[in-house]
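Homework-ish question, so no full write-ups if that breaks the rules, but can someone show me the predicted structure for this set?
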Amino acid sequence: MVEERPVPGSPDQARRRARLRAVTLDSGDPERAAAWYRAALGLSDADPLRTAGDVELRFTAATGVTAGALEPARIILNFLVEDIRAAEARLVALGAVWVRELEGTGWGIIGTVLDLDGNYVQIVEPAPDSSPCLYPKEDDG
Amino acid sequence: MVAPALGSILLGTTDPVRLRDWYAAAFAAGDGDGFTEVEPTLFACTFGDTSLLIDGRDDVAARSPDPGRMILNFHVDDARGTAARLDDLDVTWLVEIEERDGGLFGTLVDPDGNYVQIIQLRERPSPS
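A: Not a homework solution, just the prediction itself:
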């Protein structure tokens, strides 16, 4: 985990960086969307939708008029997995639509699927030398 | 079981420098070194345990046509101070900072039209 640094030179007003602690996804069927993410991420029905880095996925009923994402590349969620083949198998079992099948890149092995609302979701098995700013390391504590 | 980590959230944009500068001013605590240039049009900054990636790309429009589809929720230590800083950036508020159960909440629009929520949770008493 990267340490959150206070503002240099202003100890009296030191403040931390903001923390990204949740993403709210608008969905045509929030319960079904949450179930899909649970299955895609290898969670049971009872598990909370919190990632290892304690970022929560929240689902709300769609307020927009479109059924699918108009611009799926606008916001993309990148999940880090230890075993990308197992993650791929879970997505295949779900019948996920692949935008990009698994491929090796300079940053690691990456694959992209659509979630039920048409958003891009990526699974990433980072390369050993990936920059920590791209993929913050999980806090062991 | 715990889900895999959300390593990063990527924002696709036609103007990555403008968006980087905005997020740095708004949420990186004035830390000019907050964002790392990964590539000339790809910037990364860690916010807590996940990174925000700002990626210049040509498969999005200048402004989001569907801004409420995903909302990024930033937790801050001082929501009103953050709001004042955001006012200096002339942001558009969808919901100005307000008290709700649990703390202070506000929703605003980033330069690309994405919705962003800021949250200051009320401190809970420490367990004795």
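Now go work out the reasoning yourself. Hint: Helices of chain A lie at 30-40, 84-93.
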